[in-house]
């Protein structure tokens, strides 16, 4: 009697369906109200943008747990961990970077991928091919790949990747580990030379000099009137500027993010009108109530645009 061969074993990877950056933003909403006190899982699900403890909501909470940001606190309850609070309210930046790095590689799958590609962000096709050969469930491969890559991009943007951590703990003031971006020297000041990185992408081919700082939140560099958010610049050289102070910007403030990638955890849609591009960006985890509010707002906006354009249907 011929026994048919057993079907190949399909691995169902345990991975967070939310990148670390989004997970931190979500756990912050829980921590803001409950600190480290127990919170019902359904209440937590609503706080992070779901209408209740549905399947997607359960996956989102599981993602927080997989990074070590929340833990079980009794039947049907959870609490924010000390690691999450150290990330949200650090005593110093080095402590925060260490906790970010620990959280990023807490998931077992992410540990496996890091072991295969240490000290680098692997290409998408490389991860997909590897997971395919390992027999992972086909429907999980691309979500797992995206969550891993987005997490690596986030910790790199935060200066928490391993090469950055080694450079800073070693006491270097200007140069990071080979292949990493330079260690930060604090907030940008007039006269500093900085690199600008937005959405994980370095947009300055070489360091540029800061000519103005506005409200300790916006940086202006030589050769541009566009405001850059302070968190997007890294100081790599701080020469003695003395009393040399550049003039403040003269043109209206424009965020550099308007031409960069959309923020982590957001989605965008673009409509190419004859007169130019129309774009709308929104958080991807909107609650049902927020969706309803936005629908009303879009209807109002449509009428206002029609009225100002002088076409029918513009009465408010």
Structural commentary:
By secondary structure, the chain is of the alpha+beta class. The chain has helices spanning 20-34, 41-47, 55-66, 82-88, 93-104, 108-116, 124-133, 138-157, 162-169, 288-309, and strands at 39-40, 70-72, 77-80, 193-198, 201-202, 208-214, 218-221, 228-229, 233-237, 266-273, 276-283. The longest helix is centred in the last third of the chain and has 22 residues, at 288-309. It starts with 19 loop residues before the first helix and ends in a 7-residue tail after the last helix. 27% of the residues are buried. The model is unreliable at 163-184 and 241-260 (pLDDT under 50).
List keywords for this structure.
alpha+beta, globular, 316 residues
């Amino acid at each position: 009697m011929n026994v048919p061969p057993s079907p190949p074993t399909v691995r169902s990877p345990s991975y967070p369906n939310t990148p670390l950056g989004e997970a931190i933003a979500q756990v912050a909403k829980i921590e803001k109200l409950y600190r480290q006190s127990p919170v019902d899982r359904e209440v937590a699900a609503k706080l992070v943008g779901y209408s209740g403890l549905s399947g997607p909501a359960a996956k989102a909470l599981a993602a927080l747990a997989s990074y070590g940001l929340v833990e079980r606190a009794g039947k049907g309850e959870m609490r924010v961990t000390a690691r999450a609070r150290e990330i949200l309210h650090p005593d110093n930046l080095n402590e925060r970077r260490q906790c970010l790095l620990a959280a990023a590689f807490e998931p077992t799958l992410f540990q496996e991928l890091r072991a295969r590609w240490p000290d680098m962000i692997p290409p998408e096709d490389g991860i997909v091919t590897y997971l395919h050969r390992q027999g992972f469930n086909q429907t999980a491969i691309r979500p797992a790949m995206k969550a891993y890559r987005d997490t690596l991009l986030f910790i790199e943007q935060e200066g928490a990747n391993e090469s950055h951590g080694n450079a800073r703990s070693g006491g270097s003031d200007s140069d990071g580990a080979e292949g990493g971006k330079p260690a930060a020297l604090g907030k940008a000041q007039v006269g500093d030379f900085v690199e600008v990185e937005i959405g994980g992408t370095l947009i300055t081919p070489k360091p540029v000099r800061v000519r103005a700082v506005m409200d300790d939140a916006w940086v202006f560099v030589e050769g541009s009137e566009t405001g850059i958010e302070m968190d997007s610049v890294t100081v790599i050289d701080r020469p003695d500027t003395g009393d040399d102070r550049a003039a403040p910007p003269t043109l209206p403030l424009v965020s550099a993010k308007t031409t960069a990638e959309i923020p982590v955890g957001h989605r965008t849609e673009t409509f190419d009108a004859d007169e130019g591009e129309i774009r709308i960006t929104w958080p991807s985890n909107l609650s049902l109530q927020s969706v309803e509010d936005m629908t009303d707002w879009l209807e109002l906006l449509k009428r206002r645009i029609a009225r100002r354009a002088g076409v029918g249907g513009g009465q408010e």
